[in-house]
């Protein structure tokens, strides 16, 4: 919700065009860091939980995950420098400040996501929550100072995107040192256990999850980016409008990541212990909670959705039916995300990646199909249909397993 507040404040502090640039920058950064770094977060979370459930020792899995994470960060920097012109002038509207903020922000998230996986795997959810809160609050602070007039302009607000992950790292050194110190005191000189995570195994799992993350970001960001690419006039403003609509799906997903953080190591431990019935009950309870939440959001948007969106963002007119469609799609999407965590806990990352790829492809086809209504309505309906396909495919995988 703090992230939601950041965009609401930015929308009031900036012009429509400047806000559209912020939305596009965040979309690009969020896509890249999720695709590149969340696979290692998931790898660490699952591996640590599985090792603790089996009583394994050693720290080779940390070195493997760190190697993968550093390599991905270096790959991004090299690619961003090589592609400066299309990124700066094609994606970010020719703003050099936004380009350099992107180049600085993405590598900063590498350590943050590594720490998230480490903390989640060891069930240090309090520290995990503090890390995420520090990050989102730091980013929001840059929008607040722009609203009250201490700073001005697009660059001042955008700097929060680069500063937030760096400021969140204030939690990381203390948390990691404390855990590693306890580990050394409890297990001095214990050799690595048989079946230790290798670079090949880690890269295989992370590669499958990377495909999943790429498909996930296609769902969340392809709509605004396509709107910007195809709009004849006011592209940035219209993209910002589409981005606001999809915040109905994005904001709950940010909240649901807290559930995902705990459910993957929990399901992994149940799977390692052979507890199939508790495994299924945990998945069912989560999906029922998601369905109830989505129903409440849909009813709220049906009654006062346009009023709330206009009060929060101010720009444009929001169609009631489209907002409800996004809310329904959000419920299906979060249910699919739960089923995806079950697949990862069972070691079915490759099969889950196939499901995500098929659903993302269907979503993109619907986005580029001939329009029946406006461009934003097409994004809303495509999101609903794509989420339904994804949920159906992952449910089929869940039942087969």
What is the topology?
Elements lengths: L1 H12 L2 H39 L5 H23 L1 H8 L4 H26 L3 H23 L6 H15 L3 H15 L12 H32 L4 H39 L2 H38 L6 H26 L3 H20 L6 H26 L1
How would you sum up this structure, described in words?
The chain has one domain (2-400). 85% of the residues lie in helices and 0% in strands. It has helices at 2-13, 16-54, 60-82, 84-91, 96-121, 125-147, 154-168, 172-186, 199-230, 235-273, 276-313, 320-345, 349-368, 375-400. Residues 186-195 have low confidence and may be disordered.
In brief, what are we looking at here?
The protein is mainly alpha-helical. The protein has 14 helices and no strands. The chain has one domain.
Beta-strand level of the residues, as a percent range? under 5%
Helix content: over 70%
Quick one: how many beta strands? 0
- One letter per element, helices H and strands E, the order comes to HHHHHHHHHHHHHH
Average pLDDT reading: 82
Task: Detail the poorly predicted runs.
Answer: 186-195
**Shape verdict:** globular
Q: Let me know the largest β-sheet.
A: none
Compute the separation of the termini in Å. 35 Å
* Helix/strand class: mainly alpha
Tally of contiguous helical segments:
14
> What count of domains describes the coordinates?
1
Identify the quaternary structure here: single chain
Tell me the radius of gyration.
Answer: 21 Å
Quickly list its features.
single chain; 401 residues; mainly alpha; 14 helices
């Amino acid at each position: 919700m703090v992230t939601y507040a950041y965009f609401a404040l930015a929308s009031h502090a900036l012009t429509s065009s400047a806000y559209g640039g912020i939305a596009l920058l965040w979309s690009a950064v969020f896509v890249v860091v999720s695709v590149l770094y969340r696979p290692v977060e998931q790898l660490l979370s699952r591996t640590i939980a599985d090792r603790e459930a089996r009583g394994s020792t050693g720290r080779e899995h940390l070195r493997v995950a760190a190697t993968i994470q550093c390599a991905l960060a270096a790959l991004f920097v090299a690619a961003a420098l090589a592609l400066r012109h299309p990124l700066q002038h094609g994606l970010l509207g020719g703003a050099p400040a936004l380009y350099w903020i992107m180049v600085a922000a993405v590598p900063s998230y590498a350590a943050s996501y590594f720490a998230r996986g480490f903390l989640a795997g060891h069930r240090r959810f309090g520290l995990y929550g503090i890390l995420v809160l520090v990050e989102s609050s730091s980013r929001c602070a840059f929008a607040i100072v722009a609203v009250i007039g201490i700073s001005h302009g697009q660059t001042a607000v955008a700097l929060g995107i680069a500063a937030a992950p760096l400021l969140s790292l204030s939690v990381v050194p203390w948390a990691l040192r404390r855990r590693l110190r306890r580990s050394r005191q409890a297990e001095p000189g214990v050799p690595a256990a048989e079946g230790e995570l290798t670079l090949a195994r880690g890269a295989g799992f992370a590669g499958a999850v990377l495909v999943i993350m790429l498909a996930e970001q296609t769902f969340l960001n392809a709509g605004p980016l396509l709107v910007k690419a195809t709009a004849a006039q006011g592209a940035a403003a219209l993209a910002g409008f589409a981005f606001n609509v999809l915040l109905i799906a994005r904001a709950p997903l940010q909240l649901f990541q807290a559930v995902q953080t705990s459910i993957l190591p929990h399901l992994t431990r149940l799977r390692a212990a052979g507890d199939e019935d508790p495994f299924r009950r945990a998945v069912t309870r989560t999906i029922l909670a998601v369905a109830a939440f989505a129903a409440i959001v849909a009813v709220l948007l049906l009654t006062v959705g346009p009023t709330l969106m206009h009060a929060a963002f101010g720009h444009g007119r929001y169609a009631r039916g489209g907002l409800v469609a996004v809310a329904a799609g959000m419920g299906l999407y979060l249910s699919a995300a739960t089923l995806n965590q079950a697949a990862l806990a069972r070691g079915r990352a490759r099969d889950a990646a196939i499901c995500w790829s098929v659903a993302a492809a269907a979503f993109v086809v619907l986005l580029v199909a001939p329009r029946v209504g406006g461009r934003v309505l097409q994004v809303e309906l495509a999101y609903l249909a794509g989420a339904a396909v994804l949920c159906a495919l992952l449910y089929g995988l869940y039942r087969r397993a």
